């Protein structure tokens, strides 16, 4: 199976996905399907997690990249391939190219996380750092393709890519034949489109629901308009699904086959990532946790059994630390407070004793003494506390006020 160019007149069908599955035998893993007791209790129906975060390269992207590159003509393979990506697609293209003996060049933004840059190089690609935003990186990669004749490997806007990603849907049907709803993160649309092609052909009764970060959701306005609409995506922790415009090829399939596209907030994304880590013992990137975020935001909306596709687990450790703290705050388990104290010996010790009484764990303390808002005998203290939930946060605040402390925030 090979498509040299995206052809809207030649619709993608189940046989294409089955052909991709044969091509990927021995290359992509059939990733685990794990039950989630916590989410099952929350939803009131069985919930399973499709763990593409445990795929080779840490995401589903290897599937589509391998099928696309394997389908190139010999002269195209000889010219090499080029891609632009800040992470998962880069690693998928790098490994797929190495396995197929094809030279690959991957353009990545200058600020791309160092672990992702290092992994892309280790998989065999030549990495070129260019641009500060993905659009600049993409333009550089396309210019390189024109100048050298290398084949540009788009992350989602090509039928071969979509067919490869659709193999996730075939695995879901095999591993959970009773599935009624599939939740999948959606950026450009390749994964959601591929899953929908595979699943709807075999089980048209199964609902396929896409999930986007609310800050960068290009699909809702595009679906409303009936054609891809470009937006200016706002910053989101879910950079894996931060796409300013849906791809033409996946959009047509999503419009036809995907039942609904929902959006989730940054708080819901961070809470979902924290839940995956604590309850499922799985490291998942924010984009990969978006289906779980949808379950947390509206648990009664989905007919079970539900399969949530955890699309990737490549998260920078520094970002992970920030997200976990954000997730703890969203769950009411992390509290930041500023208070004013008299600037005298023993005042801080007394405050810490008050916090110990209400069983709040102090993570960090900082002082501000020079601020025009403070009196001559005052000091401002900022506290970061680990708490046990929203009710405990209220209890801590009330206890401090009862002790006479002036809580500013």
From TrEMBL:
EC supergroup of this enzyme: lyase
EC number: 4.3.1.19
Keyword Lyase tagged: yes
Alphabetical list of InterPro entries matching this protein: ACT_dom, ACT_ThrD-II-like, Ser/Thr_Dehydratase, Ser/Thr_deHydtase_PyrdxlP-BS, Thr_deHydtase_catblc, TrpB-like_PALP, TrpB-like_PALP_sf
This protein's pathway: Amino-acid degradation; L-threonine degradation via propanoate pathway; propanoate from L-threonine: step 1/4
GO molecular function terms listed in the Swiss-Prot or TrEMBL record: threonine deaminase activity
SUPFAM superfamilies, per database record: Tryptophan synthase beta subunit-like PLP-dependent enzymes (SSF53686)
Pfam families with a match to the protein in the record: PALP
Cofactor dependence: pyridoxal 5'-phosphate
Domain ACT: 336-409
Keywords: Allosteric enzyme, Lyase, Pyridoxal phosphate
UniProt cross-references to PANTHER family, sorted A to Z: L-THREONINE DEHYDRATASE CATABOLIC TDCB (PTHR48078:SF6), THREONINE DEHYDRATASE, MITOCHONDRIAL-RELATED (PTHR48078)
Quaternary structure, from the entry: In the native structure, TdcB is in a dimeric form, whereas in the TdcB-AMP complex, it exists in a tetrameric form (dimer of dimers).
Family: Belongs to the serine/threonine dehydratase family.
Protein name: L-threonine dehydratase catabolic TdcB
Biological source species: Streptomyces noboritoensis
């Amino acid at each position: 199976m090979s498509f040299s160019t995206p052809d809207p007149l030649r619709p993608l069908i189940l046989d294409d996905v089955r052909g991709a599955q044969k091509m990927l035998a021995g290359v992509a893993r059939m990733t685990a399907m794990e039950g989630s007791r916590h989410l099952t209790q929350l939803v009131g129906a069985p919930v399973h997690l499709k763990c593409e975060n445990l795929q080779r390269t840490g995401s589903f992207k290897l599937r589509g990249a391998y099928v696309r590159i394997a389908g190139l003509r010999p002269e195209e393979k000889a010219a090499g391939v080029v891609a632009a990506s800040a992470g998962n697609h880069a690693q998928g293209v790098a490994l797929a190219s190495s396995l197929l003996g094809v030279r690959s060049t991957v353009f990545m933004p200058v600020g791309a996380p160092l672990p992702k840059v290092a992994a892309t190089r280790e998989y065999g690609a030549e990495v070129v750092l260019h641009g500060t935003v993905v659009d600049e990186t993409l333009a550089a990669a396309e210019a390189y393709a024109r100048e050298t004749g290398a084949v540009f490997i788009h992350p989602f806007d090509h039928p071969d890519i979509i067919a490869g990603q659709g193999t996730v849907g075939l695995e879901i049907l095999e591993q959970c034949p009773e599935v009624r709803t599939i939740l999948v993160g959606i950026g450009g649309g390749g994964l959601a489109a591929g899953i929908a092609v595979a699943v709807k052909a075999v089980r048209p009764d199964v609902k396929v629901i896409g999930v986007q970060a609310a800050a960068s959701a290009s699909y809702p306005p595009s679906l409303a308009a009936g054609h891809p609409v470009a937006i200016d995506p706002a910053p989101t922790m879910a950079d894996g699904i931060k796409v300013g415009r849906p791809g033409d090829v996946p959009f047509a399939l999503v419009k036809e086959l995907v039942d609904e596209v929902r959006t989730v907030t940054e708080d819901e994304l961070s809470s979902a990532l924290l839940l995956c880590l604590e309850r499922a013992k799985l490291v998942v990137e924010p984009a990969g946790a978006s289906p779980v975020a949808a379950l947390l935001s509206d648990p009664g909306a989905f007919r079970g059994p539900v399969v949530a596709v955890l699309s990737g687990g490549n998260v920078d450790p520094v970002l992970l630390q920030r997200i976990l703290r954000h997730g703890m705050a969203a769950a009411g388990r992390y509290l930041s407070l500023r208070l004013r104290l008299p600037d005298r010996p023993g005042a801080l010790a007394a405050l810490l004793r008050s916090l110990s009484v209400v069983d709040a764990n102090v993570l960090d303390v900082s002082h501000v003494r020079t601020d025009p808002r403070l009196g001559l005998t005052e000091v401002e203290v900022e506290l970061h506390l680990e708490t046990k939930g929203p009710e405990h946060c209220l209890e801590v605040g009330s206890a401090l006020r009862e002790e006479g402390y002036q809580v500013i925030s």
